[in-house]
Specification:
Number of helices of chain B: 9
Largest sheet of chain B: 6 strands, mixed
Largest interface: A-B, 22 and 31 residues
CATH topology of chain A: ABC transporter involved in vitamin B12 uptake, BtuC
CATH architecture of chain A: Orthogonal Bundle
Oligomer: heterodimer
Distance between the termini of chain A: 35 Å
CATH superfamily of chain B: P-loop containing nucleotide triphosphate hydrolases
Number of strands of chain A: 0
Distance between the termini of chain B: 43 Å
Radius of gyration of chain A: 19 Å
Radius of gyration of chain B: 19 Å
Strand content of chain B: 25-35%
Order of helices and strands of chain B: EEEHEEHEHHHEHEHEEHHEE
CATH architecture of chain B: 3-Layer(aba) Sandwich
Strand order of the largest sheet of chain B: 6-7-8-3-9-10
CATH class of chain B: Alpha Beta
Shape of chain A: globular
Strand content of chain A: under 5%
CATH class of chain A: Mainly Alpha
């Protein structure tokens, strides 16, 4: 319907406009505020903060938020379960485990860490599908996700504790509760291309996700290849979430919150949620990161902690409302 | 060979043989009903015919071509399939739901004018156009059955295979849905349904196939296929045909001694 397409376009433009505003705020806000009339003044020492810290941090927040929001929308569509999210299902933890193993094994080639993180995330998806089964029910996926999260998180702690590393404790925290602080343009260059490629693969799963509304057999009857869809999801989530986790650590619940809120606006059709989820994921993570920077404390709060504080109660509320519906 | 046919197909689920060599051919424009006691293999046969369950041996052919060699999308354009307990995971409006029937036609540019026209025709044929904006998960049983058939019709299949499409409907809505299936067949589509209710099957179908224990016990016009000796053999039930004002009616006497 054209009207539906028009309203989707309006929503996407609104989310995009919000993204511009948040990006601007993200560049000027923080411990050091940068007044607008000093932007672009190369003599001002604060210009260095903008180019070396704030711009990379903003770009990274954008890319990682979009990757997490889109992955969440795709995983919810595939599992037909509004509680799915790369963090909740253990995919992000698997990516962190992949990354941390390279630290433990002291592999220092620059691309090896993100490569292993992406492999970990893709492996996480494959394990989820194997354990929960292709026709996996909502509960099956969540239980498989709990097991995967627990195992991978313990693996991260184990690997970092055993590594000859005096900062193990703080490293463990920053992998499990991710952060955007003190990142440089190098991280953007490292993760950006993979997030874009993975995101493009995920956007292409839209029609298959719609067909899966009718269940596995219903989708197959409509000519959808389940195997192909699973491979695309493993690749797409592997690349985008794996790359995201490689540069920020695990940031959960973005992919849970965003599709849930958007479903009220665009309806439940999985394909129509994809682009808005990517945009709103970027919005949400940037907004959370700005708030985290503005909070006064001895140490800056990890944005992963903030997302969990926001997301966990929503998860609980969703679970209770689902139980009521199933009962 | 024309039409949809299967040739000595066998399917085993674990140790249990579900289909033990079934050979059938269906013609377009006809309603064929597959009946039989529970566990006879009706649903498995239908999923095989729909190309969704590759048989362990034997093959299914569509207009002389092997169904398994057909690309998924092409098969999906020709054969529409309605599962027995259709899952509807999200609260979609009826129009969006029916549009899913066009999945195998959907290109990179989204919906074409042909898609929109086919969706409209399906909604009109099933009298669901007034419900287009309703949430499909909150429809009544009869409306839901029509929405499901509309979704299948939107794909404009040459074959419509429906597993127990009348189950769970009250009498009036059973008659409506049956009339709809007859109209679909009259328009040239081959309709194959599995049914539980023999009297209804006799009323709806041009042809009845009686299955038991994975094999075909009878195949023919309704009260020829549902002859007393077939029913005694397949169901273990004594029954006879009685002439009533509405036509021949099946009178169930009791368990076969």
């Amino acid at each position: 319907m054209t009207t539906a397409r028009q309203s989707d376009l309006k929503l996407n433009l609104a989310l995009l406009a919000l993204l511009f505003i948040l990006s601007g705020l993200s560049i000027i806000a923080g411990r050091v505020w940068i007044p607008l009339d000093h932007l672009g003044d190369a003599d001002d020492a604060r210009w260095l903060i903008i180019t070396q810290l704030r711009i990379p941090r903003t770009l990274l927040g954008l890319a990682v938020g979009a990757a997490l929001g889109l992955s969440g929308a795709v995983l919810q569509g595939y599992t037909r379960n509004p509680l799915a999210d790369p963090g909740v299902l253990g995919v992000s933890s698997m990516a962190a485990l992949g990354a941390v193993l390279t630290i433990y094994l002291n592999l220092t080639t620059p691309w090896i860490l993100p490569a292993c993180a992406m492999a970990g995330a893709a492996l996480g998806i494959v394990l989820l599908i194997l354990v929960a089964g292709p026709a996996g029910e909502a509960v099956g996926f969540l239980l498989a996700g709990v097991i995967l999260t627990t195992l991978a998180t313990s693996g991260v702690e184990l690997a970092l504790s055993l590594a000859p590393n005096p900062w193990a404790a703080s490293e463990i925290t920053s992998w499990i509760m991710g952060s955007l602080a003190d990142r440089s343009i190098a991280e953007v260059r490292l993760a950006g291309p993979f997030i874009i490629v993975g995101g493009a693969i995920l956007l292409a799963t839209g029609p298959a996700l719609d067909a899966l509304t009718l269940g596995e057999i219903g989708a197959r009857a409509l000519g959808v290849s389940l195997r192909r869809t699973q491979i695309m999801i493993a690749l797409g989530v592997g690349l985008s979430c794996g790359a995201a986790v490689a540069v920020t650590g695990v940031i959960g619940f973005v992919g849970l919150i965003v599709p849930h809120l958007l479903r009220r606006v665009v309806g439940a059709s999985p394909s129509r949620l994809l682009i808005p989820s990517a945009l709103a994921g970027a919005d949400l993570l940037l907004a959370a990161d700005i708030l985290v920077r503005l909070m006064r404390g001895a140490n800056e709060l990890h944005v992963g902690v903030a997302m969990t504080v926001l997301g966990a109660p929503l998860f609980l509320a969703l679970l209770i409302s689902m139980r009521r519906r199933l009962a | 060979m024309t039409g949809l046919a299967c040739d000595t197909i066998r399917v085993r689920l674990g140790d249990r043989p579900v289909l033990g060599g079934v050979t059938l051919a269906f013609r377009p424009g006809e309603v064929a009903a597959i009946v039989g006691p529970n566990g006879a293999g009706k649903s498995t046969l239908l999923t095989c015919l729909a190309g969704l369950c590759p048989p362990d041996s034997g093959g299914v052919s569509l207009e002389g071509r092997s169904l398994s060699s057909l690309p998924d999308r092409e098969r999906a354009r020709v054969i529409g399939y309605l599962p027995q307990t259709p899952e509807i995971a999200w609260r979609l409006d009826v129009h969006t739901f029916v549009r899913l029937g066009r999945t195998a036609y959907r290109g990179v540019f989204g919906e074409s004018p042909e898609d929109a026209a086919a969706i409209d025709r399906a909604l009109v044929a099933t009298r669901m156009n007034a419900f287009a904006d309703r949430d499909v998960t909150t429809l009544s049983g009869g409306e839901r059955a029509r929405a499901l058939i509309a979704r299948a019709l939107a794909g404009e299949p040459r074959w419509l295979l429906a597993d127990e499409p009348l189950t769970g409907l009250d009498l009036g809505h059973q008659l409506d849905a049956a009339a709809l299936l007859r109209a679909v067949a009259k328009a040239g589509t081959g309709v194959v349904v599995t049914l539980h209710d023999l009297a209804f099957a006799a009323r709806v179908a041009d042809r009845i196939i009686v299955m038991a224990q994975g094999r075909i016990r009878a195949d023919g016009a309704p009260h020829q296929a549902l002859a007393p000796d077939v029913l005694a053999d397949a169901y273990g039930v004594d029954a006879r045909w009685i002439d009533a004002t509405s036509g021949p009616v099946l009178d169930i006497i009791g368990r076969h001694a």
